Amino acid sequence: MSHTLPLSAPSPLAPRLSDLALLLVAVVWGTSYGVAKGALVLYPVLGFLAVRFLLTFAVLLPALLRAPAPERRDALVAGLPLGVLMLGIFLCETFGLALTQASNAAFLISLCVVFTPFAEWWLLRQRPERAMFAFAAVSLLGAALLSGGYTGRWGWGDALMLAAAVLRAITVCQTTRLTRRRNAPVLALTAVQSGVIGVGCLLLALALPGKLPPLPSLTQASAFWWACVYLVAGCTVFAFVAQNWALRHSSPTRVGLLTSSEPAFGALFAVFWLGEQLSATGWVGGALIVGAALWTMARRGDAQH
């Protein structure tokens, strides 16, 4: 099966399939926090991110090398700046989480769902439908209830999480803009993005004070490598490819709304898999987030054709 996405008119089923793919991305990303948390006990954050994305790059490198020269060039032209944006997102989220409360971080990153319609309006000159703003408001209310809202004083961690939310909104729109008139295969595009993130994290880990420890042993720290396998296969390869593909069939605002259901699925994973507790308010918030996503999916006419 070819992984090159033609620029011709997509199948009528493409918008519905892209909605389903994005909801699955949200589910997978929601589980990533619990999985990554266990791996980070065994290795530093930046080193772990470098391992995760360099492994992804190695897995997808054959797709980049096999692509015809024009398509490979398109993947590089679009993937390099998008990779830099995504590196900024991961760095802001990583250090932001370390410097603020978890509830603050969860609420502030969810502001992406509000920023995306305005970023689409500004960067792509496309005003989203009014219903999308309503869905975004419902999703944001759900995120506030799920996380407990914003608490405490404003600090550097809060600023970094807010920057990550802004960068997420910009990245979704820039992906649409940079790939709209280019025939970049999604696997090749994802390979370039992953390479930029992996190399960036590795260089930063080596440049910061403190020596990067040796990688965990395959035999004595198998949990670390199983976590890497899951995050590479599900949360990076599948999720990045699905999002890059879905953006060719959906508006950035729609993509942002569907993937914004990630915190709700993350909370469900924490409850049923990690044994954590969720308050009644949290359950209501999660239901609002998922409801907004399903409500968005039900509006078939909103998909971009």
General description of the model:
The chain has helices spanning 14-40, 45-66, 69-99, 102-109, 112-123, 130-147, 156-179, 186-207, 222-246, 252-259, 262-272, 280-298. It is mostly helical and 305 residues long. It has one domain (14-213, 222-302). The two termini are 22 Å apart. Residues 1-9 and 300-305 have low confidence and may be disordered.
Characterize this entry briefly.
With 305 residues, this protein is mainly α. The chain is 74% helix and 0% strand.
Order of SSEs, N→C? Answer: HHHHHHHHHHHH
For the record, the count of structural domains works out to 1
Biggest sheet features: none
- Beta-strand share of residues: under 5%
Low-confidence sequence ranges? 1-9, 300-305
Write the layout of secondary structure elements.
Layout: H1 14-40, H2 45-66, H3 69-99, H4 102-109, H5 112-123, H6 130-147, H7 156-179, H8 186-207, H9 222-246, H10 252-259, H11 262-272, H12 280-298
Helix pairs in contact: 1-9, 1-10, 1-11, 2-3, 2-8, 2-9, 3-7, 3-8, 4-6, 4-7, 5-7, 5-10, 6-12, 7-10, 8-9, 10-12, 11-12
List keywords for this structure.
12 helices; transmembrane helix; disordered C terminus; disordered N terminus; Drug/metabolite transporter (DMT)-like permease; 305 residues; mainly alpha
